[in-house]
Design a protein that fits this description.
This protein has no helices and 6 strands. The chain is mostly beta strands and 76 residues long. It has one domain: Immunoglobulin-like (Sandwich). The radius of gyration is 11 Å and the shape is globular.
Length: 76
């Protein structure tokens, strides 16, 4: 997370991959799945959150504090 955006906004991985998000902003963010399947809770600047994507599919997510911040993980 940087500049009030998830970077990259779309990430493609294979099933079983652990993805780690790092908050490089000076404000608090979350990584919250649109379907509720994962939620980082509040991440201050410098904090990390990891989630393992075990099954194939497309997983969209957003920041709970900044709903225009969105991202997508495509699991193949």
């Amino acid at each position: 997370m940087q500049g009030q955006a998830f970077r990259p906004a779309t990430l493609t991985v294979t099933a079983g991959t652990m993805v780690t998000w790092r908050n490089n902003d000076g404000v608090t963010h979350t990584v919250t799945a649109d379907d509720g399947s994962f939620d980082s809770g509040s991440l201050s600047g410098g904090d990390n959150f990891s989630h393992t994507f075990a099954v194939k599919g497309t997983f969209t997510y957003h920041c709970g504090f900044h709903p225009t911040m969105t991202g997508k993980v495509i699991v193949q």
